[in-house]
Amino acid sequence: MRMRYIGLLMKDILYAYRNFCFHIVILLSLIFVVLINFVIAEDLSIKPPVYYYISYTGAYESALNTTVEAMKSDHNNVLEVASIQEIEAHMNQEINCIGLVITGEDNRADVEFLLHGYENNQVQNTLILAMKDEITRSIKGEVEVKTELVNPNTIKNSIPANKSMLPLFLVMESTMLGFILIAALIFIEKSEGTIKSFAVTPGRLSEYLISKVAVMTFLGIIGGFIMTVLVMGLSVNYLWLGILILLGSLFSAILGLIVASFFKTLSESMIWILIVNLLLGLPLTSYLIPSYTPLYIRVLPTYYLLFSVKEVLFPTGNSMILIKTMILFMVISTVMYFLSIFTFKRNLERS
After folding, report:
1. 229: number of CA atoms within 13 Å, CB side?
2. Residue 154 lies in a domain
3. CB neighbours (10 Å) of residue 5?
4. Is 332's pLDDT higher than 50?
């Protein structure tokens, strides 16, 4: 039995290679690496140009000038103009900018922000509040603010925007791509009659399915490690990362087997493949927008996988999420594996 399974596994590895599965995984991994290292910027924060005009003369003139200089050091797109009309002219030409006008005299300083009205409210309001805080501190003095970390093990350095995309790409490749590839291989073998031929051999259906899943998990680990090494180097816990990628690939491969068992050709199943991939990819939204975590996203396994991969790459000390995710995927994959055997037997007898 062991030699029979090894022979079947070697056949599937060669079959996957001949059908360019290895090529697709490696090429896609390298494309993701290029995107992270050379295309996506390290800082994606949007800082619109700020055009300011100051005509104020009075007791706070020095403090306000100091404040504006401080703004320039933090925000490299703060530009002085000669009049309010010039600010308006810039705003008529640029759709993403802010005007700042400071007027008044003596002990009264009037600060006015000029907006178009259709700006990104979150970005603009954040910038305006920061300016208000700077001006208030300059006029009324410094305010002492104390900060206490709930989790002292949290990484102190912010995560570069480009590297923060790595968990997304790792989960996309190990789950969504793995799901498509195994389904495609099953349909190719169905069209060639391989599955029916195997059914009359001494080999077991469980061996056939396990062999396919093993190849997909192998591909997932190869792609994941290529990406991680080229982006993060060797400063990652590759043991935990390998476990998570293996579990994610295992889950998606078995899911692909179940879906493929109900159809004869790839074209028949295409709509279901797209729907399942859409569901698997929904948690990517919550990753990009952390405040958006509705229940229908949190019940998806890829939600926990995504944030577990992030925890491995950028550790905060929350090791419990890794253990919970591992247990969750082991339970789900075990149940789905027996379900895949049942659906394959049932649909093979019908065909």
Report:
1. 10
2. no
3. 17
4. yes
C-alpha pair distances (Å), 339 with each of 161, 255, 257, 316, 349: 40, 10, 10, 37, 16
Pairing of strands 50-54, 98-106: parallel
Query: What is the reported pTM?
Result: 0.77
- C-alpha distances in Å from residue 294, one per residue of 77, 143, 195, 282, 324: 37, 37, 41, 11, 20
Longest dimension (CA), the chain: 97
**b/e for 188-205, b at 16 or more Cβ within 10 A?**
ebbeeebbeebeeeebee
pLDDT tens per residue across span 236-270: 999 999 999 999 999 999 999 999 999 988 889 99
Written as one letter, the residue type at 226 is I
What is the C-alpha separation between 135 and 17, in angstroms, rounded? 64
- Give the span between the Cα atoms of 97 and 99, in whole angstroms: 7
Residue 144: the pLDDT is 47
- Tell me if residue 59 falls in helix, strand or coil: coil
Q: Which helix (H) or strand (E) holds 52?
A: strand 50-54
Choose the final residue of a domain: 140, 169, 192: 140
Count structural domains, the chain. 2
Domain check: are 290 and 175 in the same one? yes
* pLDDT band with cut points at 50, 70 and 90 for residue 145: very low
In a domain, 148, yes or no: no
Contact yes or no for 185/16 (Cβ under 8 A): yes
Sign of CA dihedral 170, 175, 179, 185: positive
The enclosing domain of 92 has a CATH number of 3.40.190
Is the pLDDT at 172 greater than 90, yes or no?
A: yes
Asked whether 14 and 42 are in contact (CB, 8 A), the reply is no
Rounded Cα distance, 134 and 132, in Å:
5
> Is 195 inside any structural domain?
yes
Let me know whether 248 and 269 are in one domain: yes
The answer to the question of residue 1 being in a domain is: no
Q: Confirm if 123 and 138 have CB atoms less than 8 A apart.
A: no
Single out the residue in 93, 112, 140 at which a domain terminates. Answer: 140
* Window from 129-133, 184-188, 189-193, 194-198 with minimum mean pLDDT: 129-133
Hey, what are 107's tokens?
């002990």
Q: Which residues contact 258 (CB under 8 A, 6 or more apart)?
A: 336, 339, 340, 343
